[in-house]
Amino acid sequence: MTAEQLLLLLEQAVLPLYPQGISQGQQQPKLVLAYSGGVDSEVLAFGLSRFSHQYPHIACLLIHVHHGLSDNANIWVQHCIARASHYQLPIQIERVNVEKGARQSLEAKAREARYQAFDRYLNPGDILLTAHHQDDQLETLLLALKRGQGPKGLAAMGALQTYKQAWLVRPLLDISRDQIEQFAAQKQLVHIEDESNQDDSFDRNFLRLDIIPRLKQRWPGIATTAARSAALCAEQQQVIDNEVSHRLPQWLIQPTDPKALVTESTGFVLAGFAQLTPAWQALLFRGYLSYCDVSLPSQSQLQQILSQLLEAKDDANVAIQWGDFQIKRFAGIAYVLSNSALEPLPVNALQHDIRAVLLGEQNQASGRVGQLAFVVQKQMQAQMQQGVSTSSFPLLALPIEHVQVTVKFGAAGSIKCLPQFASTQRSKPRELKKLWQECHIPPWRRQQIPLIFYGDVLVAAIGLWIDQRYLAAPGQAGLSLPLLNS
Predict the structure, then answer these.
(1) Which of this chain's residues are annotated to bind ATP (predicted)?
(2) Which residues pair with 66 in a beta bridge?
(3) Has 37 been labeled as part of a binding site?
(4) What is the pLDDT of residue 285?
(5) Fewer C-beta within 10 Å: the chain N or C terminus?
(6) Band of the pLDDT at 216, cuts 50, 70, 90?
């Protein structure tokens, strides 16, 4: 590989991503290089320097991530700053903390921290360059085999792929490690050597140091043929993805649908799902999880999820957890929820604020139930005009003097209330457990909805209903409790 060929690789990789017809005087998406200072990224930094002189209207930036995992990390920072100056390229040093939890890979946590650092510099349309090469692709493919992954994992890394609102480009993916090292030697490029690369307790290093050299000794072209296999898997996966994207919408239910839970995000309809083949069940539910932008469970976890969703009784409390997420089911619909969305609310503060509004001690209180926020505040109920109220929503009457006002989260299902529902007029109170079902409130949200009591009487569930016996009369002050499904 020559310097001209390296520049051509960069041009072929990134120039097609720039819109046609943009003049050199206009701001262009920038190129951001993940710059470790190792031989691979050093070669790519050299090429990016040539590219920046050829295309001065395209901004370029090097980002070096200081993980703090090596005693030499500060020396590497100085090396990268010096080399960036030599290449006449701007550089940003990002310091991150890598904390490995139980059953977590240090490699994976460091990678996650790196990409979070890169994200801070990527605007929509920008291009993130990484120096992954053909031997890295072979390592990735072998790791995918070790983990028992399917076509998506065996597709390994793509030379071009979308990355959030930006692009991720790997210009050297068809170039071998030997070619890169030969180029660095010819150009006398100074680079760092990370001592952790010799630690074969890391899976990638084990493959790189012990396994791949033996494979290449037996089959010199294995990196090339493995890359071909990865490309074929990627083609097959694209066909699968296209078909899943075509079929998936009929299984999704959006929050705006009348049958959906207004407190949740997109759900997955289970009616008829059991009639599909196991393969399509897995593909579609993975597609749903990807649509919701959550980390995917393992194959065994996915099988457990599908088994419980399809085989558990209708009234069973389905809750399958993996990582930071879990699946729940209600009324024939599955929902993926983050653990943080199910954490107990800071109820003491919210109880105090709502009660303070009722007693006239502050102007408003705000909170959240699932995906929806609410605000309660004191207002005046509109006057009647020609027998019709001009108000579009009812207000809760303020408590009379000396009545004890209580705000609770959760109450016995046997407590009764007489809600004022626009669609239903009742003459008798109904039990709370029946009202939860009528309002399609799933069990996991019932402890998050503030309930207002005057004395021992449940007078309102914020965002859902007001007891019709406690409605503010026209012209009177009351508490605004906007409906969650309004």
Answers:
(1) 36-41
(2) 95
(3) yes
(4) 94
(5) C
(6) very high
